[in-house]
Amino acid sequence: MTPTRTPPSPRRPAGQAALAWALLAPALLLLAGFTYGPTLASLWQALHTEAPGLPAAFTGADQLRALAEDPVFRQALRNNALYAAVTVPLSVGLALAMALWVQDRFAGRGLLRLAFFTPTVLPMVAAANLWLIFYAPDIGLLNRALAWAGLHGPNWLGDAGTALWALMAVTVWKEAGFFMVFYLAALQSLSPELMDAARLEAPSAWTRLRRVTLPLLAPTTLFVGVNALINAVKLVDHLFVLTRGGPNNASTLLLYYLYEIAFKFQDLNYAAALTLVLLALLGAVSAAQFWLARRIHYR
């Protein structure tokens, strides 16, 4: 029996290829102008040192070595690691709890959803100014409540032991409502037949949540967790209003330190080296995302 041969696929006309590149051109230009171009420029600046009136001199990895020896950078890195380790699980866990609460029908559900989502629509600067009313040392609402209980409240933003935790509270309060929307949409998309079967097999609500609901929400959890982790690196708006990195760099985060180096101290080469470190951290987050995505079942 003579085997059949598959005919070769016809070549695409040149006009189709030209049309495809023309459609891709706007996105490619934006990526080149605002992503790849600045990244290459930061790499060049990180490897050179410039002085007024003198040409740029190649210094290799000296900027990165100086960054590794910088105590403020190490403090900002530790602060950011703690900041992410606390805000990410709290924001995601609180968002899931709120979504589970407001998914069922009950009186006042719409108002409760609105209350949970309201912090999301506020700009971070406005939210930080609102929290100043709570954190003020003597007249703030937190210290007034502690005074009524016979306790002396701390200077929440002026004490090195509480400043970073105060920033974390603002971040969790601001982000949990936003992530709740994704969880609520995912919960409403679950198959009613599957959930009815789960109720028959597992009468316990905790067992259904652990064995059925959470595994089905794994893709949403991955998406929300990665976004929360990226936000933990890039959110600095509230630092300008609440602490400005103080006291004594106790609340300085990496992106705020980058801002200070680039715009306050005008050391663009050192700021470029810090930018590369931030890009490497975000690249590691993306790599972890792709690694986890292979182990998650998408319906």
Mind explaining what this structure looks like?
This protein is mainly alpha-helical. It has one domain (63-293): MetI-like fold. Helices cover 71% and strands 3% of the residues. The protein is built from 13 helices and two strands. Helix 12 (254-264) packs antiparallel against helix 13. The longest helix has 33 residues, at 14-46. The model has no long low-confidence stretch (mean pLDDT 86).
Q: Notable features of this structure?
A:
299 residues, mainly alpha, two-stranded antiparallel ribbon, 71% helix, flat
Task: Summarize the entry for a quick read.
This protein has 299 residues and is mostly helical.
Biggest β-sheet: strands ordered side by side in the sheet:
1-2
Structural class: mainly alpha
In whole angstroms, how far apart are the ends? 43 Å
**Could you estimate the helical fraction of the residues in percent?**
over 70%
Q: What would you report as the Rg, rounded to the nearest angstrom?
A: 25 Å
Catalogue the unreliable spans. none
CATH class: Mainly Alpha
Shape: flat
Average pLDDT, rounded to a whole number, is 86
Please provide the ordered H/E string of secondary-structure elements.
Answer: HEEHHHHHHHHHHHH
Described by strand count, sense and barrel closure, the largest sheet is: 2 strands, antiparallel
Count of spatially separate domains = 1
| Name of the CATH architecture | Orthogonal Bundle
* CATH topology term: MetI-like fold
Number of strands: 2
| Assembly status | single chain
Contiguous helical run count? 13
The share of residues in extended strands comes to: under 5%
CATH homologous superfamily title: MetI-like
